[in-house]
Design a protein that fits this description.
seven-stranded mixed beta sheet, Lyase 2-enoyl-coa Hydratase, Chain  A, domain 2, globular, alpha/beta, 2 domains, about 290 residues
Length: about 290
């Protein structure tokens, strides 16, 4: 097992699975600018490490993330008033980039699949940061809340793009209009989370899913599939998907991975895929700035 040191996170890699644990348990893992930067750096690390085949994100202690750290009181969300080095780094002209959005967009760009293991309270940024994760699994003790209107602010972390795509516009608006905190059963019923687990069974279940990915699939194919699915969520026509699909299937079709995958199937043995995300992504990746059909 390998570990890396972050001020607000625990980070380990074991058997192909990276586990990122929000680690301010005495503050219910409340989100700070330091945590913002640590999370972005952690996903930079998982992308760069070919040993990482899947990523799990969870929280230390009884909470996943209780939202923004409100210790600054009414000035918490007044970026101009609370100028510091970390916030100034996110300044673009007269606007300060939303820190939660910087995190969700980084997760959105991840080259590895991301599983949220939501172990407890998840409100504000604690729930919106999950929306760019591919699969969310929750403890039966988890609680969720898009509480922004109850604090006088608006949804953040690009949640106005992600949330309606996951649960539909009606549910997304109800949760944001009321700002109420709801239980894991409602989150599961409305398809915010994939499955519910007893608290002590949550991480083992998340690791089992991560292991299924790590043990059986080609990493480059998974990276491409992840970005193809997410990028097409906002496409205006299926032709855009067809253009990317055509390039991807042709590129992968001549790869060493496909020869190994087909050979392993025919020979009834586990595949050992040779291609690596760090070196073997196709030359058209990333494709989303331009989509010529060749």
């Amino acid at each position: 097992m390998t570990e890396r040191s972050f001020e607000t996170l625990l980070y380990t890699v074991e058997d192909g699975v990276a586990t990122i644990t929000l680690n301010r348990p005495e503050k219910m893992n409340a989100f700070t600018t330091r945590m913002r930067d640590d999370l972005i750096a952690a996903f930079d690390a998982t992308d760069a490490d070919d040993a990482v085949r899947a990523v799990i994100v969870t929280g230390a202690g009884k909470a996943f993330c209780a939202g923004a750290d409100l210790s600054a009181g009414g000035k918490t969300f007044d970026y101009a008033e609370r100028r510091d080095e970390a916030r100034e780094a996110a300044r673009v002209g007269d606007t300060y980039r939303d820190g939660g959005g910087m995190v969700t967009l980084r997760i959105f760009r991840s080259l590895k699949p991301v599983i949220g293991a939501i172990n407890g309270a998840a409100v504000g940024i604690g729930v919106t940061m999950q929306l760019a994760m591919d699969i969310r699994m929750a403890s039966t003790a988890a609680r969720f809340g898009f509480v922004f209107a109850r604090r006088g602010i608006t949804p953040e972390a690009a949640s106005t793009w992600f949330l309606p795509r996951l649960v539909g516009i009606q549910t997304a608006l109800e949760w944001c209009y009321t700002g109420r905190v709801f239980d894991a059963q409602e989150a599961h019923r409305e398809r915010l989370v994939r499955s519910l687990h007893a608290p002590d069974e949550l991480l083992p279940a998340a690791r089992a899913l991560a292991r299924e990915i790590a043990d059986n699939t080609a990493p480059v194919a998974v990276t491409l599939a992840r970005q193809m699915m997410w990028r097409m969520a906002g496409a205006d026509d299926p032709m855009r998907a067809h253009r990317v699909d055509s390039r991807a299937i042709q590129s992968r079709g001549r790869s060493a991975d496909v020869r190994e995958g087909v050979g392993a199937f025919l020979e009834k043995r586990p595949a050992k895929f040779p291609d690596r995300v760090s070196s073997d992504l196709p030359d058209f990746f990333p494709w989303w700035d331009e989509l010529p059909f060749e």
